[in-house]
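During the no-cost extension, the postdoctoral fellow (Dr. R.K.) reprocessed legacy sequence entries with the updated structure-token encoder. One reprocessed record is reproduced below for audit purposes.
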Amino acid sequence: MVDMLNDISLTKRLLEQFLVVADEKHFGRAAERLGMSQPPLSQSIQRLERGLDVRLFERGPGGVRLTPAGAAFVVDARRLLDAQEAAIERVRRVAGGLEGDIRVGYVTIVSHLYVPRLLRAVAEELPGLRVHLHQDSSAAIAEKVRSGTLDLGYLRDTSVLSSDLASEVFAVERLTAALPQDHPLAEADAIGLEALRDQDFVLPSVTVLPALAEQVQLACRQAGFTPRRRAVADDLSGLLSYVASGLCVSLLSEGLRDFGVPGIAFVPVQGSSPYLETTVFAVYRPDADATVLRLLEAIARAQRHDPLRP
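Re-encoded structure tokens follow.
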């Protein structure tokens, strides 16, 4: 059977011609429907029968009828056409960034608020895209994007970016005071940062979260004090845990208020200091493929309808 199939090319056009003849049961009508003359159509079907080494049609003066083998081949021909069309559509979707796999890295501090929104944007606009998530430090994410291990990264610290990477603003957020729920200021509508002058802080790790760590220091110094360190944490869970324990306070993204973290009250911080605002950047290679560009476009559209700024 393999040798016989090697003698014939089951092209899309040939399969379509066979199915139209099978449907019309008449070469003349089939040729008219296909926009061709009858002799070439008859020759194509004859070549198909020779290649398969079976008779697909019984010819008669009033037209043709399928043989049992021909009727069976109708089913398989339709399956072959469907498979061809699906393969063509899939490769076009992958090439166009509508389907496939994408590897996204992010720093821990953006995971709770922005990663779920990113996944929602993919599900709504690019359902054929499979997202693989990876959490790491800003420096590690930047290097993995540069080397191609990751396709896209989200981080705050742009000082780790090399000149061969592209970046764009993904979101801007304001810092808020994270206080233990029984803290005297927990019920305040808003506070000045100087109100935390005498408080113990859990601070972001300078190694793992350098951008946020520097920002907290600068914001507090502009308010006239250096934050008194009680503890250091290298991820969001650690920062939240220390605050929830009642041992200290911190400065975190105001978007975390939406999560209702047990044991923590988020109180807005007044003031126009630029250090009270922090920016999240999307980082990718300038030669990023269509998948990355499609994802960035989808997120931008989602942001217009549901702004990523809390």
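The chain has a mean pLDDT of 86. The chain has three domains: 2-94, 99-166+282-305, 172-277. The remaining legacy entries will be reprocessed before the final report is submitted.
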